[in-house]
Write a structure and sequence with these properties.
By secondary structure, this protein is an alpha/beta fold. Helix content is 54%, strand content 16%.
Length: 308
């Protein structure tokens, strides 16, 4: 029951985002009444069925202090369908091993959203992508790292090369040029925001050196000044950190322009770094309140785990 490459890649992306982004995992498993706990996902898990080895597409496990909840995942992508024999095999494995639920994913629009039985739910890829996109929008300000992860998976699943959606659905998923530009710009902005602190510090370092050199050049045009590069470095450092000792200061108009730019970069850098530190502390406090573990589970077949 192995999958061809496009389906396996789509399944890997799905299981990774279910385990890696708690809100997506909660949205996918909510119709089945899964408990709140740590989600771990596994791909290509082998089982014994009627004396033969059966490899299922995936297993999702939710662990709490008191119990372990397990669901099988059965996936079909593109124009593939979930054959009755295949679905029956998955249901039999669920019963035989005492698992709690079965999650089925395909492009069959007649099976969507609500449990087909008390322990079975059918999702279409379109609905899953939409649900993940909504989670990303909700997380963009609170948890930009999770939002970035979800955006990357959504982008992959929407890509025609992934083979996830049927051609007709792929055409419906295609965005108008303006909306596509806004989407790409949002993804770029999210990446920049995620790396804002490191970018700010790098910019400050480059500005420190460039301002020192520029200050030396423009100020030495004044016959009364004799500014060395070392003096420029000291002036630039005291200016960019907004300390301003005053032992060296610009006399020329060009030097004052350089000083203004340097001060602006310094103020912006410290504001960005301070904001990112405060955001990290807020996220850490929120994660502690939800009892989210800091470490991820590891294993050759498992995806990262998070608490939902």
């Amino acid at each position: 029951m192995g999958q061809h490459d496009p389906a396996r890649r789509a399944n890997s992306a799905l299981l990774a985002v279910i385990a890696g982004a708690p809100e997506v995992g909660r949205a996918v498993l909510a119709p089945l009444g899964a408990p709140a706990g740590t989600i771990t996902s596994f791909i290509d898990v082998p089982f014994e069925r009627d004396g033969r080895r059966v490899v299922v597409d995936g297993v999702v496990r939710v662990t709490t202090d008191d119990t372990t909840w397990t669901a099988l995942v059965c996936v079909a992508s593109g124009c593939d369908v979930l054959e009755p024999d295949r679905s029956a095999t998955y249901r039999a494995i669920v019963r035989t091993y005492g698992f709690d639920a079965l999650v089925m994913v395909s492009n069959d629009g007649s099976k969507a959203g609500e449990p087909a039985a008390h322990n079975e739910v059918h999702w279409t890829w379109t609905n899953l992508i939409a649900a993940a996109a909504r989670c990303s929008d909700l997380l963009r300000d609170q948890s930009p790292e999770y939002a970035w992860l979800i955006d990357e998976v959504v982008h992959f699943l929407n890509d025609p090369a992934s083979g996830v959606l049927e051609p007709a659905e792929q055409a419906q998923q295609e965005q108008p040029p303006l909306r596509a530009f806004v989407t790409k710009a949002s993804r770029v902005f999210a990446t920049v925001r995620r790396r804002a602190a490191s970018l700010a510090v790098s910019t400050a370092g480059v500005t420190w050196m460039a301002a020192a050199f520029a200050f030396m050049l423009v100020e030495n045009r004044n016959p009364e000044r004799d500014i060395s590069f070392g003096d420029g470095l000291w002036w630039s450092l005291s200016t960019i950190t907004t300390v301003g000792y005053g032992d060296i200061y610009p006399l020329t108009p060009a030097g004052r322009i350089v000083a203004g730019i340097t001060m602006f970069v310094g103020i912006s850098t410290f504001a960005i770094v301070t904001a990112r530190m405060a955001d990290r502390l807020r996220q850490s406090a929120a994660g502690t309140n939800r009892n989210e573990p800091d470490s991820s589970s590891t294993g050759s077949t498992s995806s990262p785990s998070r608490t939902v």
